[in-house]
Amino acid sequence: MIIDNIEVKGVTCDSRKVKKGYAFVAIKGETRDGNDFIEEAVKKGASIIFTEKNIRIKNIVVKQVENARKTLGDLCNNFYDYPTEKLKVIGVTGTNGKTTTTHLIYQMLKEHGIAVGLIGTLDIRIKEKQYKTKLTTPDAEVTYAYLHKMVKEKVEVVVMEVSSHGLKNERVQGIKFDIAVHTNIERDHLNFHKTLEDYILSKKKLFDQLPQGKFAVINLDDDHALKLLNNNSHVLVATYGFNAKASITASTIDTDFSTSFNYCLQRGLTTLSGVEIEPFEHPITINLLGKHNIYNTLAAVTCGLLLDIPISHMAKALRKVTSIPRRMEVIYRGEYTVIDDFCHNPASYETVFESVQSMQYKNLHIINAIRGNRGLEINYEIAEVIKQWHAILKIKSMIITSSSDYTKHLDVVSKKERDIYIETLSRENISFQYEDKLRASVKKALFMLETGDILLLLGAQGMDYGAETFTNMIQAKNRWDEVDALMNQQRDIIPRH
After folding, report:
1. Residues 6 or more apart from 214 whose CB is under 8 A from it?
2. What pLDDT sits at residue 152?
3. Which PROSITE patterns is this protein grouped with (predicted)?
């Protein structure tokens, strides 16, 4: 890439990554200002600086820009030779359901023999290879590097989770999306967005970014859905949900520890390649729990149809999806059942409890990890949801934990966050126990479980090690049970005099 007759050998906003011949983009972040590191970038060999400030540096080209974040995306796009012009790109945004929806799309495309990539919360995938990621939507320089790698690896379609943080911070600037999916919008991340309106406008940017004639797949049951399409008449729209006005809906629903329904295309659909699809119904069965996963599947299958994948092929592929990590994931099913879910806002708790309500169980037990470092409001609202469902679900035991033995410094629960939980639940005389450590919580719950019970492991980062902790404990308990049984057998065969 040549800028002002200067050969640019790399692009970054991280001064620690600068090498000789790099372009350095100074971005003002939430806690650090990249402008404070311009001198360091120059010393490391940066040949050109982009900044929103009006500054001059001797013998260095400095370009003042209006929006440094957008500039970073545009530079990366140029540096990596516009990778999304060589890929089909599906972006999925929403408060809840992004991870499940993208994984369903990924699995269906993969089963159909399409070379597919994935960028999301759990990992980045390029065909069979997996790479770790720290953010749901990585920074532009990371995203574009992987998109470039996908082009080199002959990937045809990439599926991306697109977070509100990623949209507001211009991490997907310049990406050419073919399909944008909206799952839902609920109150979340208001510590970052400050207002619900800003949160919605950030989500809207994904749909504004769609090129002429590309598809918006919208959940019509969501109250905020149509706001995403305001002043956006250049895109094609497919709506889904249980609303009778939706283009795609579900019928003949049956849910318990698997979910079956009919996918109903109520009006004709034209695919991205121009193929006309007439209205139809087709049975779908998924090994995922809850009504919310019908929404996720409707969205995923619609994307598949737009890419010309036959519905029968998708139905077959969906049967092979057994679970999505920490998304109503059944981690143990024996004499009792243990379900793990990454609940992180009031709506996701509502979704889990609605799903559990339709299941058969003897007693319900909950270990809930408080969401650390996210403020009092979100934790108060979550505690309120738990309080409201306590009697409905007849919760037998509940343990609230700060998970202090596992949380990293960014997720540590403050005393005020802990207290708001305790105060909210105590006002209704709801029976619960508080445990500081996750391990102690799991150990206590394990010895309460009886045949036919369900144990829910709920919470965001504070419960990330819940499944692993439970699995290790149940294996240890089973080994001790085997030893006890063997010793009892030995006692029975030893002659008594």
Report:
1. 177, 178, 179, 180, 235, 236, 272
2. 97
3. FOLYLPOLYGLU_SYNT_1
Task: Tell me which amino acid residue 440 is.
Answer: A
Instruction: For residues 229 and 124, state if they share a domain.
Output: yes
- In this structure, are 142 and 43 located in the same domain? no
Q: Is 152 among the domain residues?
A: yes
Collapsing DSSP to helix, strand or coil, 260 comes out as strand
Q: Round to whole Å and give the CA distance between 272 and 41.
A: 44
pTM for the whole structure: 0.89
Per-residue pLDDT, 186: 85
> Of 63, 82, 55, 77, whose CA–CA distance to 25 is shortest?
63
Q: How long is the chain? A: 497
Tokens of 225: 């859905």
Q: What is the CATH number of the domain that holds 450?
A: 3.90.190.20
Residues contacting 81, CB < 8 A, separation 6+: 148
Whether 488 is covered by a domain: the verdict is no
- Judge whether 493 lies within some domain: no
The 10 Å Cβ neighbour count of residue 328 is: 23
Say how many C-beta atoms besides its own lie within 10 A of residue 431's C-beta. 10
How many distinct structural domains can be found in the chain? 3
**Structure tokens, 382:** 């979550």
- Mean pLDDT in each 10-residue stretch from start to end of the chain (497 residues)? 92 95 93 93 96 93 96 97 98 94 97 97 92 89 97 98 92 96 79 75 94 96 93 93 96 89 97 96 95 96 98 97 92 95 93 92 97 92 95 96 94 96 91 96 95 97 96 84 60 55
233: tokens are 């008449």
Give the range of the structural domain holding residue 74, as residue numbers without chain letter: 2-79
